[in-house]
Structure formats: structure tokens, C-alpha cells
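Sync notes, pocket subgroup
Present: LS, DG
LS reminded everyone that the earlier model was apo-only. Rerun requested with FE2/S2 (inorganic) cluster included. Inputs:
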Amino acid sequence: MTIELTINGITRQFDGDPDMPLLWYLRDHAALPGTKYGCGMGLCGACSVHIDGKVQRSCVTPMSAMAGRRVTTIEGLAPEGRLHPVQQAWLELDVAQCGYCQAGQIMAAVDLLKTTPEPDDAAIAAIGNLCRCGTYPRIRQAIRRAAELARKEDA
Ligand code: FES
Ligand code: FES
């Protein structure tokens, strides 16, 4: 059975094993390696992408669930090279250390700001994405800064 889905605005067809995790498809078939493999069990958030505009863990999302769905990965967050406010804030505050978790952190932060434009520490902590380097204080600052930048863009 052919599964048709859209990734970063491009329609793609998949005819392989429907049990294949979306993460595998993104990295090995669609050549989008920005999304990372961490735990493979839905726990760490390194593999976070947006599916129909909502953050999801792609390591535990099978291709069989992807028919007709719209995926955005970190590669699709800045169409035409215009950075998302979360990306701008990440750069300003130099959030990344090793960088491995950061694509997932950014995708999760973008999703949070959609529903919670002025998140407090508890809302940010509820994201639950893990960072082995411990960049949590800078992530918190950057999310607040991104919220500020987004408000300015909307003004
Ligand atoms: S790799 Fe998907 S949650 Fe850890
Ligand atoms: S920056 Fe290294 S794991 Fe988060």
C-alpha cells in the first residue's frame, strides 16, 4: 500500500514496511538528518517533529499512521531562509552545547509557544525533552526571548 504524506511542503510516497518509524524514513529515505535518534522509545524528545502542526516523537510514530499527514522537521522551520523567532532566540543566547538534542528542543519550543505565548518555568519544564549537556537554563531563557520576539513580530 502506498502511503502519501507531505514533508516540509513536499509530497512524498512511501511503499515500504508500514511499521517503519517516521524517524527512519526522515533520516534514511528523505535525507533529512536534522531530526535525531536518541532513545528510540519516545522518552528523550531528540526525534521531535511536527505532525499536522503538533509536536510528536517520530521514533514511535509508524509510517502506517502517516497517510495524508503533514510533517515539518527542523529543516522546514525557516522557509525561504527566514528564521523562526525560536531559532533567532537560540542563536542570540547561544543555547546549544553539543547540539544533539537541539533540533528536538526547538521543535518542542515552537509547539509550546503556539498554545502558550507567555510560558512560565513549569510550562517549559513540561516539554520534557532531555539534554545530556544540561542546557536547560539557556533553553528557558531562549524560550522567553522567542516569546518576546514573536510578540514583536505580531505587533
Ligand atoms: S529518540 Fe524519540 S523520544 Fe528519544
Ligand atoms: S546540547 Fe548536548 S544533548 Fe543537549
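DG: The CA atoms of residues 105 and 129 lie 6 Å apart.
LS: The chain is about 35% helix and 15% strand.
Action: DG to write up.
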